[in-house]
Design brief:
Length: 295
């Protein structure tokens, strides 16, 4: 309760700076971790920092390229500052360290914490909230404080990244995400976007909230979890539980789909994953060996 009251007081301080006082501030749907509060505090302290006339920034310098286009470098620098000041280990574990295009988005995707604004991930497939029958609607996710927003120009590649501070909703129900960003165009500043803004490609999230269609070539923690369930149910040998969706996983998913009356595509789509989770859950909790207590 004290954490919630503190968050509300902080928003009251922030709102006059943004000019959005006429809109209702949305309280976060999930608890705001302490490290997110530290990260936002660090980012706020950098507002108005401006690159020098030759393009130099301390963020690019920290990343090894003093004249870099520095939106990602700014966020990664902020995370590193939190690690140094508070003894956390966020960089490369909770948040990526990167400079190049698309690398940050792919890092979150591999780590199971990426939500596409459109509800569909290129080269993967549709998304849905974990355990839910309905697919994720375009613009259906309300970003949380500490999430990273990935923007796009061409719809295929990331062109910019920013840090979510909070969200507001207007009288007509339109939700706006308020962010802190670097390199826009040459300084650190606050900005905002509507959840329906097609420039938004998606969000690297604080929490693991959605599942995604998995197929040949997919990699990461979601693939690993899928493989572990398939192994437990006898469809996949342990040597193929690697986190990479290869031929053995395709074969295992195909066999599972055949056994459960689904179209055998070898693609772990929405309903294949829901059924797999259900059968795995039933098998695990009915296995007495999982609950033996050693003396």
């Amino acid at each position: 309760m004290r954490r919630l009251l503190a968050w509300m007081m902080l928003l009251l301080l922030v709102l006059p700076w943004t000019g959005q006082a006429e809109d209702e501030t949305l309280l976060p749907a999930y608890p705001v971790p302490q490290y997110v509060e530290w990260l936002l505090e660090t980012a706020r302290a950098e507002i108005s920092y401006k690159e020098s006339s030759n393009g130099y920034t301390k963020y690019g310098d920290w990343a090894g390229d003093p004249q870099a286009e520095w939106c990602a470098e700014f966020l990664c620098w902020c995370v590193d500052q939190v690690d140094q000041q508070h003894g956390t280990q966020l960089l490369e574990k909770v948040y990526p360290r990167y400079s190049g295009q698309n690398i940050g988005l792919r890092w979150f995707l591999r780590n199971g914490r990426y939500i596409s604004r459109s509800g569909f991930v290129n080269e993967w497939g549709s998304q849905w909230y974990i355990g839910q029958e309905e697919s994720l609607e375009a613009g259906g996710y309300i970003p949380q404080p500490g999430d990273w927003v990935f923007y796009t120009v061409d719809g295929e590649n990331t062109s910019h990244v920013a840090l979510v501070e909070y969200c507001t909703v207007s009288e007509d129900g339109e939700i706006t995400a308020h962010v802190i960003e670097g390199n826009m165009p040459d300084k650190v500043q606050r900005n905002s976007h509507k959840l329906t803004d097609k420039r938004v490609m998606g969000y690297g999230t604080v929490y693991d909230l959605v599942d995604t269609v998995l197929r040949s070539g997919s990699e990461g923690v979601k693939v690993l979890a899928l493989q572990e369930k398939l192994q437990y149910l006898g469809y996949l040998d342990a040597q193929y539980v690697t986190g990479t969706y290869g031929p053995s996983t395709i074969q295992a998913v195909t066999k599972f789909q055949e056994d459960t009356g689904k179209t055998p595509t070898g693609i772990a789509n929405h309903h294949t994953q829901l059924t797999l989770q259900e059968l795995y859950h039933d098998a695990y909790w009915s296995n007495d060996l999982n609950f033996q207590v050693s003396e």
